[in-house]
Structures are given as structure tokens and as C-alpha cells.
Amino acid sequence: MKKIVVALIVLTCLSQSAMAQFNEDPIINLENEDEPLLNWGYFLGFNQYDFKFDYKNDAKHILVDKSFGFNVGLIGELRLNEFLDVRLEPGLLYNSRTLGFPGFTEESDAIREVKSTYINFPLLLKASAKRLGNWKPFLIGGASISMNLGSNEDSLDDNSAGTFRMKKMVYNYELGFGIDFYLEYFKFTPSIRGVFAISDELVPDNDPDSPWTGNLAGMRTRGLFINFTFE
User: Fold this and answer.
1) Distance, CA of 198 to CA of 85 (rounded, Å)
2) Span 51-100, pLDDT tens digits
3) SS3 letters for 170-193?
4) Cα–Cα distances in Å, from 17 out to 9, 40, 133, 177, 182?
5) Angle at CA 131, nearest 5°, toward 20 and 5?
6) How do beta strands 91-100 and 68-79 pair?
7) 3-class state of residue 9 by DSSP
8) Which end of the chain has less neighbouring CB within 10 Å, N or C?
9) Which keywords appear in this protein's UniProt record, sorted alphabetically (predicted)?
């Protein structure tokens, strides 16, 4: 929770110059910015990933120690009308999670570090409100496919050899909101988005009674993105 609070504070600080655009009678910046059929840009940001586990039987739950990772990518936007845009946001996402498995006395058995490098391909629909001076709030949502380059899916080793395996391809849906700020030379957009995997990512251990995965019926990523977009 503290990490999320810190992230929101950073988001607020970076938006201070843009907040001046809320003046009742501002000078209108980039008046024709949204009129072209196609728009381009890029984004930078950070993320925090978690797991949602499904268990076969009641038992002590797996603990997840979350950390912040980073996002970077490109934006292609197709204008449908004044309020709707279709966006493609291919990006590179990096994150690391540490899993703590119950029932072990040795740290080498109980702890697994899961490093993930995702190539993410989201197709999103952006629904904006009417522009008010130099700012415009919006909602965004859609589906995405992620390729996890650190999945270890094809590894012959499993947790008995210290290797935690996940599926390489992950299917998600994404929901978020943000505000477009029209500055003097570019459009700056802070946004917050939730990412929810709908496909099971777990590759079970070779032993069906494995103390690591034997009680798991499924595992899905849950993520929080805070992005800063420049167009």
C-alpha cells in the first residue's frame, strides 16, 4: 500500500505544471491536436505485478512480495470521432516478484524469484469526455496479448531444481482512466490502468504431488500500470 501511495505522489508532482491548465480562461494550446486521423506518441511508466492463485484444497497461501518495474512503449491512435479513439500500445514491461511457499524450512526451497520481461500488445478503446480548455479526462479499456520472455515454459527443470515455470503467452483485459493535458508544445497524459490475466499462466511441476504446484489449480497475473504519455 505504501508503494502505491508513493507512486500516486510522484504522479501528482509530475502533473503540477499541467494542472495550471485548469484555469477558467486559459490560452488554448494545440487547438487542432486531436483532428488528424492518426496520432503517434510514446509512453514511459512503472508497474507493480501480483498473482491471483486458485487452490485445489484449503492450505496456507503462497505469499507474493511485489516490487516496482518499468514500462516503455509506442502509441498509435486511430480517431473514430470526437470522443472515441482506437489505440495500439506495443510496449516492453519488466517486473520481478518473489514467491514464498509454505511448508519449507530451507530458504532455497521456500523462495522463488520470478523475473518477467513482457512484450505487450494491447488493443484499446479510448472514450474521452468533451475537451475543457486544455484538459480532457477519459476512460480506456480493451484486450492485450503478452509474451513473457522469462517464462521458462520450455525448461525441463522445475521447482525441484529451483526453476519456477510459467506459460509464455498471456491473455489479458485492461481497464483504466487518465487525463489529457494540452501543453504548449505537446500533449501530456498521466494515466492509471489495471491489467488482469484471463488465461492460466501456471506450468505445473513434473510431479503431480509437487509441494510447490501440486495444490495449485491456476495462477493469473494482476497488474497496476502508471504511465506518462507524450504525443
Assistant:
1) 24
2) 999 999 887 889 999 999 999 999 999 999 989 999 999 999 999 999 99
3) EEEEEEEEEEEEECCCCEEEEEEE
4) 14, 22, 15, 20, 11
5) 55
6) antiparallel
7) helix
8) N
9) Signal
SS3 content of the chain, % helix, strand, coil (to 5): 10, 55, 35
DSSP class per residue in 206-225: SSTT-TTTTTEEEEEEEEEE
Q: What is the mean pLDDT of the chain?
A: 89
Per-residue pLDDT of 144-158, as tens digits, reads 999 999 999 999 999
In terms of DSSP H, where are the helices of the chain? 2-14, 16-19, 107-110
Closest CA to 87 of 174, 185, 146, 195: 174
Q: How deeply is 68 buried, as exposed, middle or buried, from its count of CB atoms within 10 A (0-12, 13-18, 19+)? A: middle
185: which 3 cell numbers?
508544445
Q: What is the largest CA-CA distance in the chain?
A: 68
Is 11:227 a contact under the CB 8 Å cutoff?
A: no
Q: What is the pLDDT of residue 186?
A: 92
Q: Count how many residues are written for the chain.
A: 231
Tell me which amino acid residue 55 is. Answer: Y
Domain boundaries, the chain: 38-129+142-176+193-230
Strand partners, 181: 135, 188
Q: Distances in Å between the alpha carbon of 211 and those of 36, 151, 214, 215?
A: 57, 20, 6, 8
